[in-house]
Amino acid sequence: MNEEQRITVCKTSLNQIYAMLRSSPQDWRNYINLARTIITHLDSTTFMQQGNRTQEQVWMIAGLQRLAFAEPDSGGVNDIAAWCSRQWLVIYQREPQNLAALRGIGQVWLARAQPVLARIHRNDGGSSSSGGSARSQRSAPGTREEDQSPTQTADAERRAGTSDYVEARGYLQPATEYLERAVSVATAQRSLSGDLLATTAEAYMSLGNSSSPRVNQGHFRRALQLLRAATSIEGYTLSRYLQQ
């Protein structure tokens, strides 16, 4: 096969993955080897380096990333997730205002935070969150530090300095930065979506939950602003765990 034929085969295979994610996402593990084969074939071509094929590249990376993080709290399939992250960075370096790349990088960082957020939730017995999984962990954005007792504030401050909380912030800080930039680019391009706003709000809420009570209110306020903006978009409805 020549290069274009290999690329076409990769697209056909990725269409199978997209179809599975739509119809039977619980079967995602059965497609990991197919995804790795796609990556191997793509890496044997110049496809991902071709600057005039960004839209095709975005479609390929996005599909493989969805598979890599099909189970949110698992931390992803490391090699596939790492490949996607590298490819987003290639596009971002070539096109710093590329919305898909900014969002893709932000989502990678947010997804990487999920296992440690789940661990925090298990270890703290839900004391810093309101849901049963990492993606639903958050404090109400309107919660104020002064509403907590001194003992509660001191305990929250202590937790914020522990290794899990520090690790979570290490993922969530770049997640919010890239997603915030994606929101800015989407706003400028008049293509802002409720889904992007809600994802960015989720990142801020998780960052607030893993931060010191001395600084977390700013994160919660920004999350609330984003959620309000999302609900103002006609036809968009927040997912159940983001509704209050």
**Mean pLDDT over all positions:** 89
Count of individual helical segments = 9
Overall shape: it is: globular
Distance between the termini: 55 Å
| Count of β-strands | 0
Write the layout of secondary structure elements.
Layout: H1 3-23, H2 32-43, H3 54-68, H4 78-94, H5 99-124, H6 150-160, H7 163-188, H8 194-209, H9 216-231
Biased composition (Low complexity): 125-140
Region (Disordered): 121-165
Overview of the molecule:
With 244 residues, this protein is mainly alpha-helical. The protein has 2 domains: 1-95; 101-244, no CATH class. It is built from 9 helices and no strands.
What's the quick description here?
It is built from nine helices and no strands.
Keywords:
single chain; 244 residues; mainly alpha; 2 domains; 66% helix; 0% strand; globular
